Amino acid sequence: MSTKENFYLRHERATLGTIMVLMTLIFWEGLERGWWADALHPVLGESAERLQLERIFISSPTLVASAAFRMFFVTGEIWRDIAWSALGYGLGLALAIVIGIPLGLAAGWYRRFSYAIDPFLSALNATPQVAFLPLIVVWVGTGLGARVLIIVLLAVLPIAINARAAVRTTDPRLIKVASSFGAGDFRLFRTIILPSAVPFLLAALRLAIGRGMIGVVVGEIYGSAAGIGAMISQAGSRFQTDKVFVGVLTIVAAGLILIEIVQRIERRVEAWRPPVQV
Length: 278
Prior knowledge:
The protein is mainly alpha-helical. Helices cover 82% and strands 0% of the residues. It has 2 domains: 3-58, no CATH class; 73-272, MetI-like (MetI-like fold, Orthogonal Bundle). The protein is built from 14 helices and no strands. Helix 9 crosses helix 10 and helix 10 (144-168) packs antiparallel against helix 12 (185-223).
């Protein structure tokens, strides 16, 4: 096997992903510049001829990159929106962690407590939490509190549910041995339950990061004067498609960075994950 083949096999995932992204960007750029108008005309008819004229609706990678450079490094207008969104997101995610982890661990450990809160967890899990946004606006207004609350509602469920599952999948033999030596609930939690639950909690955090991003955008679009979501909404109403894509890609980049950080931590504690019985 040649050196090039070995390199490809080692980096096959990154290579194929990069090729597909580049092909998509080239196709998108061609739509805006009219490169594919003749080829698409038999399929789309007159719509293909209008592709070159309707730049305002589709933008292009070069226009988005130009807008991003201007917003980040020339005017700097996006930094205020990023700071505003990061504040609400950080507070909401932190509250979801503080609420979700103890709630889930307690539900997994205490059977009667689990029976008591199961109807609420199941109902919230089956309900799109964004449906509560009008009520949240009535209760706390359209400021920071509304955004934090919707983020908490979206992010707390995966954390609580995974925390409960983590307790229930802990090896019962370890608990029996520790209990036979007189270990109390606090010692069991500290020495057995929590180490076993860490991989599950990190997996839940990855889910919570994505759901929290949804809360940021929805909360700011619904009623906020600042933030990435508000910027996307305002740019869309003005047909500034390039700015809309800059806002969307900023959210995507932030989510990917946070998820990558959690995944790196998760790989370091992979040895704590209990073996799966097939």
